[in-house]
Amino acid sequence: MLLLVNQAVAQHVVINEIMYYPVYKSGEPQWIELFNPTNFSVSTIGWKISNHLRTNSVAADTIEPNGYLILAKDSIIFLQNKYSIPIANILQTNLPDLVHSGDDIVFKDSVGNIIDSVKYSSSWGGPTGISLERIDFAAASDSENFGSCVASIGATPAALNSISRKDLDLALVALSSIPANHSDLSITATIQNKGRKEISDGTVSLFANSSFPLAQSQITSPILPLAKQDITLTWQNADYGRTNITANVNESQDQLHANDTLHSQVYFPTPRNALVINEIMPFTKTGTSEWVELYNNSTCNANLDSTELLVSGIDTIYKFRVTSLILPSQKYGLIIADSNFYTVFPSLHGQNGIKVLNHTNIKLNDSGNMVMLINSDTSVIDSLHFYSSWHLPNLTSHTGISLERKQFTAPSTDPNNWGSSLDPRGSTPLEKNSYSNDSIPTVAAIEVHISPNPFSPDGDGFEDITNITILLPSDKPESITARIYDLRGRLRSTLPVSQSGVLREISIPFAGKDDNGITLPIGLYTLVVESGGGLFMPQRTGIVIMKKAR
Fold it and tell me: Could you write out the three-class secondary structure of 295-349?
């Protein structure tokens, strides 16, 4: 009768951890861990283990209630010493050799009933020296329920698995993006409750190139165990091109942090006319280089890592890949054929915003060329078809004289929007064009400095208040407003500003409270500073309220 009980209970024993690819030079053998989740002891008398080639008998032993048993062919002392596990938890038995790329493992009891089986693949995890761990002993033995050990030593024999399903475990499982408009990128973070209990709290934060969060959002509704929820984050004034981003989910009681962070790359195609072709040098002096100047006419930074410059020839179109060229908002960039450009403009050598194509020329003609800038998805950023007639009529030679754009907002294809450079040097690379009606913004901007940022208004006397300093490029008092909004665009706090106006500078202490005197929750907020008369460009700046670690 006892044997029948043991056989029945044995059906609940699971294959819990597999070291199929140890570092053999270290002396570690292949091994398999079994886990008995029941309240009864289980005997291995009469058991057999099989893989795709052979079947071996398992030596007699006992798996204690809620206990572990490690099966290995040899090196018992090595396993005990490396992982500091009791010798009683290790069973020396004749294991079949496990295949690194994938294998079948089947355990059967004394009457031939399958106790548990796994058909693993190296794609599941468990690379060299790292074990393959089971996530949930009560779930199926499939790829969704196994993964690489994340413990520092590489395995957890005779102990709780490092990726074992916890009571509270909120994980980031996917990131996707789509342009929301010409300047904002909408990013969807898919989170999953991988724990055993319902989760109703948590924050998702988005980062790129700095520790300052670009956006944050709260969980909108409770998430049941194993359920997923999509969280939408808006990256305002997102970078054009390809950007590496990081998303992080934070839940105060989360018991597993290895799956809290996800890295991805997003692509935001540069919208049409966000960058414009601003100046062209088609007919150069001997020994120098052809070039095309761009201007970033948007509020976003542009990373031209996957952009192409197309130039039409007589019977073909020449393509030039533009890589590693970054154009900040309201800045210029140069695409030059080769380094001979610096013989005319040596002071620009080593400056940012220049991409050298390392070609003899860009195939520009003095007249009749089509020039086009396109994204990697073939969408057009800007294009024009220029002619020599666009130059000043009294010029006897166009050699060394560039064609300059007159207005950023006027069409690139309008001949009246172009003319010969009036600069004595014949061109103005990386500078304001020589035409007086060039539309480079001349309105001065308000400056805003926040320190400290982030800050923590928790009443402990350390960084409870942040100072907001506003600088105005003005010689007379100007009325301004300073308001703080949350991520939903709701006005949360109006900062006190002198009714008589601000002369040059004002510093405002902010204690992190809303207009009702209640401390704002942790998260990302937006400070908007505007001048009452509209004389200065407004400023939008992020403020982070955080909770210090205890």
Answer: EECCCCCEECCCEEEEEECCCCEEEEEECCCEECCCCEEEEECCHHHHHCCHHHC
Cα-Cα-Cα-Cα dihedral sign, residues 208, 210, 214, 220: positive
Q: Hey, is 471 helix, strand or coil?
A: strand
Using CA atoms, how far apart are residues 321 and 306, in angstroms rounded to an integer? Answer: 7
Domain boundaries, the chain: 2-148, 170-268, 275-420, 447-545
| pLDDT of 18 over the 60 cut | yes
pLDDT at 24 over 60: yes
DSSP string across 334-398: EEESSGGGGGT-GGGTT-SSEEE---S-----SSS-EEEEE-TTS-EEEEEE--GGGS-TT-S--
Q: pLDDT value at position 441?
A: 43
Question: Using 50, 70 and 90 to split pLDDT, how confident is the model at 548?
Answer: low
For residues 84-103, give the mean pLDDT.
Answer: 96
The vertex-183 CA angle with 177 and 189, nearest 5°, equals: 25
Report whether CATH 3.20.20.150 matches the domain 447-545: no
Confidence at residue 411, expressed as pLDDT on a 0 to 100 scale? 87
Query: What does the alpha-carbon distance between residue 68 and residue 47 come to, in Å, rounded to a whole number?
Result: 16
Could you please state the CATH topology (level 3) that the domain comprising 2-148 is classified under.
Answer: Immunoglobulin-like (2.60.40)
Q: Domain 275-420, what architecture? A: Sandwich (2.60)
Please state which architecture CATH assigns to domain 170-268.
Answer: Sandwich (2.60)
